[in-house]
Amino acid sequence: MGASETMTPAAREPTRERAANYLLERHRFGWAEALPWLIAIAAFFVFPDRMTFGSQVLVMVMFALSLDLILGYAGIVTLGHAAFFGVGAYTVGLAAARLQWTEPISGLFAAAIAAGIVGFISGWFLLRYRGLTLLMLTLATAILLQETGNLRSDISGGYDGLPGLTFKPLLGIFDYDLYGHTYYLYALAALAVVFFFVRRVVYSPFGQALTGIRENVRRMHAIGSPVHWRLVTVYTIAAAIAGVAGALFTQTNAYVTLTVFDFDNSAKVMVMLILGGTGRLYGAFVGAAVYMVLEDYFSKLSPTFWQFGIGLVLVLTVLFAPRGLLGLFEKVGEYFTGRKHS
Amino acid sequence: MPHFAIVAVSILFDGLAYAMFLFITSVGLSVTMGLMGFVNLAHGAFAMAGGYLVVTLTRTLGFGFVPSLVIAAIVVGAVSVVFERLLYRRLYKSTDLEQVLLTIGLAFMAIATATYFYGPIPKSVPLPDWLQGDVNLGFRYFPSYRAFLIVLGTALIAVLWYGFERTNIGAKIRAAVDNRRMAESVGINVDRLFTLTFAVGSGLAALGGGLAIQLLGLSPSFAVLYLVLFLIVVAVGGLGSLKGTLLAALVLGIFDTAGKYLFADAGGFFIYAVTVAVLLVKPAGFYGRE
């Protein structure tokens, strides 16, 4: 920054143009990006009887994507991301069970707003802290919300939850079907909207600033970047998206219990994201899909075996593939083509 | 004696016993985190391993309860060194996130292993006669197991305080927590010091796990369920501070017990509310360095 101040206006223009071009270049779509969407649509035709499970995968992809915004791009390590998922899930659940507000799409917006508000308030207080303190405070936030729900079990239904919720047909036309076809396409559409929004955010100058904060907080402070505001903003956005994912979770399952706030839920989404690869958007897709499919298969065989396996995978990922599965693929690709990805 | 005084003394007594358990189990975590800044989410797994070892030693091999506690602490302390040398040391310079992931992976594996060998149902241990009854404190009877916890905890605090404040090794540890680079440059082998404290800390956690069987129950989920409590004690007390860990264990133990006595429905609310309140005001904990 300092250098550009002393440049002549004529010399500054090309630098600026190059920076703008760089951002645009990153923002351009590649052909490979169509792949996950094609797979998601193909899955609809290949496994028509597994669509309820498919919707769960899409929900977890969205949840992992929201975590990627704060963990992968801004470098905020949280153990309580389930808090926002839970707020979204309960916004829709309580609205349907207590207020008879069962229109699904407006429910998503309500969930985003509610989770966003919780994210803004908690982020405003918590994002000044780092390390173990931040880990503990985020964890405590999720547990406090859970305990509050438990305290007012007359409203929230406590650990029995709110079972048997019903929602109005989508757009007034498409009703809920037994195989979950409608809700799969609905979740896919919602995921697409959220994804293009997130993609836009991370490739914007704001997203660049977040990466800067992740890489070197002190330098970002030094060049005058409003670090705290940037972090609070992205935390709020991520909370709102996690809220939408939670709302979709309630709508596709037609029930919700206080276990959505569990530490397990926060840990699970983090494992998915790490497995896929952080800070690379599609890591959430790969990680959540691989995790959910493996869990579905192995936990039926033996839950104990599954838990041991996921622990082992985590240890191995940290030791040998710190950039996740996608990072591993890239490495293999580099090995064969001899070309380095940027 | 008036009713509220009896309730107050009961809370104090049970809270103290609980606090001693929290202190014994968490103190090692605090010192190792203070030394290396290593976020060890597998600490609860070491405590759980100690608990299950005590179960096997007493039930299958017929050892007494107290000798089993000692053996479990020594065995787990020794085994933890293997983990430290093989896995942990690779990640001392890594980010929080990688440390969190590695150790949570280890915790998951520990839970699965415990479920495989011991099943998901909570275990109990046979206690010697002198730990089973009640002690008479004049106006009320208290379970002698909790009295034993308080006595044992107090004795351990005295030993640890002496080791920390009055011995050469203790001075080295304090120096390394204060300023690791400086300690290294005056010739303290911080690496070896860390291995030693890690072993002692894991051994104490195993002792805590053995003591927890009777106090809280022991099932495979122990490793994660109570880990949160240990981490809270460490964070609230301040990393690497013996005094801080003790104060945090006392405050949290007594608050939690009081909350459960007086407002049964609120459950775990208090301990987290206290944690958030303390950390918002003092982010580094009671005695941590800012």
Task: Offer a quick outline of the entry.
The complex is a heterodimer of chains A (342) and B (290). Chain A has helices at residues 2-6, 9-27, 34-46, 51-73, 82-99, 104-126, 131-151, 153-156, 181-203, 205-215, 217-222, 227-253, 263-276, 282-301, 303-320, 324-337. Chain A is mainly α.
Please describe the structure with a list of short key phrases separated by commas or semicolons.
heterodimer; A: 342 residues; mainly alpha; 16 helices; globular; B: 290 residues; ABC transporter involved in vitamin B12 uptake, BtuC; two-stranded antiparallel ribbon; 12 helices; 2 strands
Could you give the topology of this structure?
The complex is a heterodimer of chains A (342) and B (290).
Chain A: H1 2-6, H2 9-27, H3 34-46, H4 51-73, H5 82-99, H6 104-126, H7 131-151, H8 153-156, H9 181-203, H10 205-215, H11 217-222, H12 227-253, H13 263-276, H14 282-301, H15 303-320, H16 324-337
Helix pairs in contact in A: 4-9, 4-12, 4-13, 4-14, 5-6, 5-7, 5-12, 6-12, 9-12, 10-12, 13-14, 13-16, 14-15
Chain B: H1 3-36, H2 43-59, H3 65-86, H4 96-118, E1 134-136, E2 141-143, H5 144-166, H6 168-178, H7 180-185, H8 190-216, H9 222-225, H10 227-237, H11 242-262, H12 269-281
Antiparallel strand pairs in B: 1-2
